[in-house]
Structures are given as structure tokens and as C-alpha cells.
Design goal:
The protein is 41% helix and 19% strand. By secondary structure, the chain is an alpha/beta fold. Helix 2 runs parallel beside helix 3. The longest helix is centred in the last third of the chain and has 12 residues. The protein is globular, with a radius of gyration of 12 Å. The relative contact order is 0.25.
Length: 109
């Protein structure tokens, strides 16, 4: 599926579309940036509560297709601008990490 598929599903609040044509092949959940940098599968949807600039840097290095910020976490406008420039879609949700990831996995199945 693509990021556009996730946008169209309307499961989460879209903050920036990034590159809607990016493929999503897996869901990845992690809140430790050093683990995410080394283990996040490329072309994945990363569900996390880490809403800071370093999250975007890791997503860019790991070739993450989109970030879903769970538990009501959000990026500031400067981070959203950076995500857009990097082509990374960003979503927010009030759902816990597991529940958000499960919704994405259901779309992938």
C-alpha cells in the first residue's frame, strides 16, 4: 500500500502528506531512537510517541515512509515543515501505539 492509501483511510489526523506515493510494507513500533535507526525496516509506517526533531532525522536515515504519532503527541510547525521537505508523511492519533499499529496492519493485510 502507499502513504496515500493511509491518508484515504482516514484513520488518523494528517499533519503533512510528505510524498503520498511512498510505499508502506510494514508497521514498526519503537520509542527508542537508537533502536529505530538500526532496526526500522525501510518503507515502513513508524508508530511512536517520540515527537521531536530527532525522530525526523532517524526516519529520513532509515527511509521510513510515514510517522504516526500516538497518544496525542504532535510535532511543532518547524518539525512538520522539515517532514514535508523530507517527503515524510506525519499523522497523529489519540490511540495508544499498539492500537494505531494494529489499524495499519489491518490495512496491509
Amino acid at each position: 500500500m502507499t502513504t496515500q492509501t493511509l491518508i484515504d483511510a482516514g484513520l488518523f489526523t494528517l499533519k503533512t502528506a510528505g510524498d503520498p506515493s511512498k510505499n508502506i510494507g510494514k508497521v514498526f513500533c519503537c520509542d527508542l531512537l537508537s533502536i529505530a535507526m538500526g532496526r526500522a525496516p525501510s518503507k515502513s509506517a513508524w508508530v511512536t510517541v517520540m515527537g521531536n526533531r530527532n525522530t525526523l532525522a532517524v526516519a529520513s536515515l532509515a527511509d521510513i515512509s510515514c510517522i504516526v504519532l500516538a497518544e496525542g503527541i504532535t510535532f511543532q510547525d518547524t518539525e512538520l515543515d522539515c517532514a514535508e521537505q523530507e517527503g515524510i508523511a506525519v499523522f497523529t492519533t489519540e490511540l495508544p501505539v499498539f492500537d494505531a499499529a494494529l489499524k495499519i496492519q489491518e490495512l496491509l493485510s
